[in-house]
Each structure stands twice: as structure tokens, then as C-alpha cells.
UniProtKB/TrEMBL annotation:
Organism classification: Bacteria, Pseudomonadati, Myxococcota, Myxococcia, Myxococcales
Domain of life: Bacteria
Family: Belongs to the DnaX/STICHEL family.
Keywords, alphabetical: ATP-binding, DNA replication, DNA-directed DNA polymerase, Metal-binding, Nucleotide-binding, Nucleotidyltransferase, Transferase, Zinc
Domain named AAA+ ATPase: residues: 37-179
Stored Pfam families: DNA_pol3_delta2, DNA_pol3_gamma3, DNAX_ATPase_lid
Quaternary context: DNA polymerase III contains a core (composed of alpha, epsilon and theta chains) that associates with a tau subunit. This core dimerizes to form the POLIII' complex. PolIII' associates with the gamma complex (composed of gamma, delta, delta', psi and chi chains) and with the beta chain to form the complete DNA polymerase III complex.
Known EC number: 2.7.7.7
Gene name for this UniProt entry: dnaX
Protein name from the UniProt record: DNA polymerase III subunit gamma/tau
GO CC annotation: DNA polymerase III complex
GO annotation (BP), single: DNA-templated DNA replication
Catalytic activities: DNA(n) + a 2'-deoxyribonucleoside 5'-triphosphate = DNA(n+1) + diphosphate
Amino acid sequence: MSYLVLARKWRPQTFDDMTGQEHVVRTIGNAIKMDRVAHAYLFCGPRGVGKTTAARLLAKALNCEQGPTANPCGTCRACTEITSGTSVDVAEIDGASNNGVENVREIRENAKYLPQRDRHKIYIIDEVHMLSGAAFNALLKTLEEPPGHVKFIFATTEAHKLPDTILSRCQRHNFRRISAARMLQRLKEICLAEKAGISEQSLSLVVRQSEGGMRDALSLLDQILASCGPDPTDEAVAEAMGAIDRTVVQDFAEALVRKDAKRVLGRVDEVFNRGLDLKRLAEELALQLRHLFVTKSLGEAPQELAESEQKALLALAKEADTAQLSRLFDIVHGCIWDVSRAAQPRLALEMALLKAIQLSPAGSIPDLLARVERLSAGLGAEGATKSTSGAPGGRSGPSNFRV
Ligand SMILES: Nc1ncnc2c1ncn2[C@@H]1O[C@H](COP(=O)(O)OP(=O)(O)OP(=O)(O)O)[C@@H](O)[C@H]1O
Ligand SMILES: [Mg+2]
Ligand SMILES: [Zn+2]
């Protein structure tokens, strides 16, 4: 059998298996249990978060021989045919390539007839926002009052492109980006089953790059395993992703906090020589400093990071105060734009990092107040001697102090 990419191999086959999207799974599960399944559903949300998967699961739930059930068996003929896309009663239509009015007319004609074998005739229209205006209009009547045996499930990443007339005839469910922590968990499980020895730290890099999309994460994982083999080192993974090794980023943050200018410059040199993007480095550093700030403020590290990284952050956070971290973040974050624009990005980055190290901290607010008080006490004494010629009304003391 030909190789099946991870994203397809690991398509959830039960609602329980879906990561995140609990709000959708719960509502649909209840509707099935209470026999209140709507005749048209619209699944919207970003790419690769489970819309098509959920549409197929709903089709199985409705047509499973043991059903209708929120836990389709996955083994009966109806279920297996839906999985393989060969069911006679479930049509999966790509809205992008079947977007004309004639395609919709065909659906309308077909919908009149009873299902050939299973309980329902189900039309899954993916990328439904691609239908033409005339096609949408042709769909309205059927969508309003379809025959009892017909169900529509639409999926789209761009719900705002659908006419209101369509939106108002569907039960809409918004799919969310999958949280970093849940995604990391799922990737760990998949790697374990696939016997892939990739570190948690590298997986968290994959998670971050995929911005909540599970398909993106699995495709990236596929690509990494293909190019680095089943037991890749962190460095190899970072290289394969064109990313900067997390260890390097951690080391940078440590050097910045410890004001180790030599180490900072050495690291910039290394990253530069490896041909990696310096703007990306600045972004990674800003993010790492953000993590550090969060860790300092909350007393715990962000959960989406690997355990080893969380520990390192907790330890490093103890070495810095919030004023220092906030200043570091401001300067590093502020330089991202400069680095991306500069004729010599390396120069811009180095100067920003050195400034971040060199500038003395503004100090904490109590410190500042004490300094102001000391200053004003000194000036107050002076002000009192000048009060006759100076401030009107003989005001003296600290109130004479002008900044
Ligand atoms: N919530 C999820 N839980 C587990 N795996 C998921 C989830 N969402 C997506 N995946 C993985 O990503 C693959 C693609 O998911 P799916 O086809 O459902 O995405 P989609 O939301 O329809 O994306 P698109 O908008 O690009 O069509 C699945 O085969 C599965 O491996
Ligand atoms: Mg899809
Ligand atoms: Zn079944």
C-alpha cells in the first residue's frame, strides 16, 4: 500500500478522538441523542482544525447501522464507506470545482429520491464559499425545506463570503484553533505510536509554527521525519524547519538577562553564519522574553512549552526583575521592524541587543519614589531660603520642586 501521510492516517475516527472543538462535539452529540439533528449544518473555522473530519463523523453518526448514534461503530458498511469516500448515500462535493448553478440543480434533483441503502442522503459541500451567486440562489429553496431524509453539511474557512440567506438557513458551528498544549499532547501520542523519537522541545517548535492548525502540524512532522529520519536531533529539526534551535534561543535569553555581551555577539555571529534569518531571530527572542515575563509575573511558565523549557524559564525568571525584563522586551521587540528594514540587519540587531544589555534599569517604582523624595528634600531646603523672592505666597518645601 502506498504511504499515507500522517494527517490522513491520523484523521480522528470518533468524536472523542478529536482534539479540541469540544463545544461542537458536545452540541452535535446532544442533538443526535435527543433526535434534534438540524437539516443543514455549517462548519466554519481556520484551515486544518477538523471541519471536514467532523462532517464525515456526523455523516457516520447519522447513517451508521447501529445508529443514529453519537458513537458510530466505524466498522459497519455505512461507516467504512464514508471513511473511504465510496458511500452511495453520502456525497462529498468540492464546492470549489462544482460551483455552478448546474451542479446545484443536480443536487436538487437527486435529493428528491430516497437514499439507496442508508438512513439519510447526506451532502457534504466543502469550501462552500466558492459557489457562485446563482448556485447559492438555486440552493435556497431546498435548503429551507429539504425532504426529511436529506441533510446538508457545509464546511468553509471563509464564512463571511456566504450570503446571509444561506447563513440563516444553517446551524452554524465555529471551529477554533487548537490550543498549543492540546496540540503538543496529540503530537506526542502520534509520535509514540509512529515510533518517532523527536523531542518534546522540537515538537513545541512544530506546534508554534502551525498556529493552531492540526493538519499543518502533521504535515510539518511528516516533512521533518522524511528529511531527518525517525530520531532527529533538536538541531536537525530546527534546521529542517528553517527555524532557530530552541536551545539557541534559550541561551540568548540567558545571556541577555546576565548581561553577557560577549556571548550575545557570539550567538548572533553563529546564527548569521548559518544563513538563518535575523528578523526571525529577533522575533524568536522577543517571544522568549515574553515567555520570561509571563513566567515572572505568574510564577509559572507557559504550559505549551516543553517541560525542560518550562524549568529553564522558571530558573532564569528568578535572576531578573520585572523592570529589567520589560526593558529587554521593549528593545528587542522594537528592533524587529528595524532589522527587517535595515540595509545591514546584523548591525541593527547587534546594536539593539547591546543597548538592551547596557542601559541601566530604570529601577522599581519604590526606588524611584525614594530618589524623588531625596532630591526634593534637598531642593526643599534650598527653596525655603529663596521663598521670599521666588514662589508667590511664600510656598516652600517640596511643593516648590519642579521637574
Ligand atoms: N480537531 C482535530 N483533532 C485531531 N486531528 C485533527 C483535528 N483537526 C484536524 N486534524 C488533522 O488534520 C487533518 C485535516 O483535518 P480536516 O480535513 O478535518 O481539516 P479542515 O478543518 O477541514 O481543513 P480545511 O479547511 O483546510 O479543509 C485530519 O486528517 C487530522 O489528521
Ligand atoms: Mg476541509
Ligand atoms: Zn457504523
